From TrEMBL:
Protein name: DUF538 domain-containing protein
Alphabetized Pfam families for the sequence: DUF538 (PF04398)
Highest taxon above the source species: Eukaryota
Cited InterPro entries: At5g01610-like, DUF538
Gene3D superfamilies named in the record: At5g01610-like
Span of the signal peptide: none
Length: 169
């Protein structure tokens, strides 16, 4: 009879050394760890491949990445457009795709720039030191990486404080 009592004690939830309690605590600990470990954001992904976060606008819903091929898809809340440096009109579709590797984005889809009267696809972005080179077909333009330290916002780009100031006047 003493043996039955001993078994009963081992399965007793009030017993802190009970296998049920140990298993439950272990499972709860694992679930909490998994829940608090945040997945990297698309902005984190850019930094991992040596790109500044400002290549993407604010408002990313989600993304997928195939780490083997570098193929990615990014989904924004909506289509997004804004002006940069008072001379470039940029447009991000709600879905952006391409391939990413260290210092290089290729096969880009969903990002366009207005040149004169025409909207052209930005097909590639390469980083070389402190410069980013944007390719539109066979034509390219270089910009300092520092220009992209902050994520642009839809509608006002990098000059949102200026736009807010005008609206409040």
């Amino acid at each position: 009879m003493g043996e039955k009592i001993e078994k009963k004690k081992l399965l007793d939830p009030a017993n802190p050394t009970s296998p049920i309690i140990i298993f439950t605590l272990s499972l709860t600990s694992s679930l909490c760890t998994a829940a608090t470990t945040a997945a990297p954001t698309a902005y984190d992904l850019l930094k991992t491949y040596n790109f500044p976060i400002g290549l993407l606008p604010e408002g990313i819903k989600n993304y997928t990445l195939n780490p083997t091929t570098g193929k990615f898809n990014i989904h924004l809340n909506r289509t997004c457009s804004f002006s940069l440096e008072d001379s470039y009109q940029i447009r991000y579709e709600s879905s952006i795709s391409g391939y990413i590797e260290e210092n290089r984005l290729t096969g880009l889809g969903g990002i366009r720039v207005k040149v004169l009267f025409f909207w052209l696809d930005i097909g590639e972005v390469d980083r070389s030191g402190d410069d980013l080179e944007f390719f539109v077909g066979v034509v390219s333009a270089n910009f300092p990486v520092g220009n992209f330290d902050v994520c642009p916002q839809c509608g006002c780009g990098m000059d949102c404080d200026f736009v807010r100031k005008i609206k409040n006047e």
